[in-house]
Amino acid sequence: MKPANFDSALIGAGYWGKNIARSLNDLGALKTICDSSENVKTNLSKQYPASTFTNRIDSVLADPEIKSVFIASPAIMHFKHASAALKAGKNVFVEKPLSLNVEEAEELIKLADSKKKILFVGHILHYHPAVIKMKKIIADGIIGKLQYIYSNRLNLGKIRTEENILWSFAPHDISLILGMTGEDPSYIDCIGNYFLSPGVADITMTSLKFPSGLGAHIFVSWLNPFKEQRLVVTGSEGMLVFEDTRPTDEKLIIYHHKIEWKNSVPVPQKAEPEFVKISDIWEEPLKAECSAFLNAVETGKEPLTSGKEGLNVLKVLKACQESIEKQDRK
Q1: 223-235, strands of its sheet edge to edge
Q2: For 286-301, what is each residue's pLDDT tens digit?
Q3: Which residue of 42, 121, 231, 306 has the fewest C-beta atoms within 10 A of its own C-beta?
Q4: Could you give all domains of the chain from N- to C-terminal order, each with its CATH number?
Q5: Sign of the torsion angle spanned by Cα atoms 316, 322, 328, 330
Q6: CA-to-CA distance for 256 and 258, rounded, in angstroms?
Q7: pTM above 0.90, yes or no
C-alpha cells in the first residue's frame, strides 16, 4: 500500500511534464493531471485512466488528498504556481529553474519554511547513476584535487522564446559544478550570441573561477547539428568524462592521465581510458528524482536539490545574465 503522501498532482504535462507523468504513474503517485491543452488531456487520459484531469489549478490546490504538486509549466509561471501550491499547504517539486528571479526564489524558500513543506528543484543530473558514481570517485580522492571542469550541453532545439539558452540549458551544469566544488564562484563571465530572436541568446559561454583556484567553463547551444552532453572533470591525479548520449555502460570514463615534471618541464603521462561500472541496477534518473522528492516528503528531511540549492544556482544565472547584458552594451 502506498503512503498517503504519495498522492500527487502534476501541473503542466507538455514537453517535459509528460515524462514526469510517466514516472509518477510508475511510482503509483499520479492522482491528478492539470493542463489547459485538450490534446494533452486526450492523449494522457488514455495512458493514465486511473488519474483525474482538470484545467483548473484551484481545484488541484483545494483537493485535501493531494499532498504534493509537481510543477512543469513554462519557467515564467514557476513562481506563480509554486507560491500558490505552498500557500495551499502542498509540498512542491519545481522543474528547473526554480524561478526567473532571485527575489522570487527567496520568497518561495521563506514560504516553504513557514509552511513546513518540502521545496524541491528538478536538477535531475544529481540523481543520475553515472553522476552519483562520479561524485563518489571524486570524494574518494581517486582523481586527486579538482583543477578544472567543463561542460558542453548542445542540441538542435527545443528552442524557446520566453527564456534564453542560458536559463534553459545551463542550470543543470551550474548545479552540478556548484555541488562538486562545494564553493560559490568568485568570478563569473558570460558571453551570449543571438541569431534567431533579438534579445534571446541562442549560444552562451560561461567562465567561472572559484576561491580554491578551480576553473570551469559551460558551453550551451540549441543551434548545434547534433546532441552533445559532456562533462569533463580534471583532477591532479586523473580525469573523468561523463557523456550522457553514450550507451549505459559507456557513460562514465576515467582517464588516469597525469602530468609529471621532468627537468622543470611538465610532461603528460597518458593512460588508457577505463569505462567505469556505474551500478548493478540501472535506475532512470527522472524516476529516481521523483522518488527522492516523495521520500523527502515522507521523512521531512531537506533534499539534495532543495530550494536553497536552487537559489544558489539562480544567483549564478543572474550574474551570468548581467555579464551578457554588460557585454552587449559595449
Answers
A1: 187-193, 203-209, 215-221, 146-156, 223-235, 238-243, 252-255, 274-275
A2: 999 999 999 999 999 9
A3: 42
A4: 4-117 (3.40.50.720), 126-283+316-329 (3.30.360.10)
A5: negative
A6: 6
A7: yes
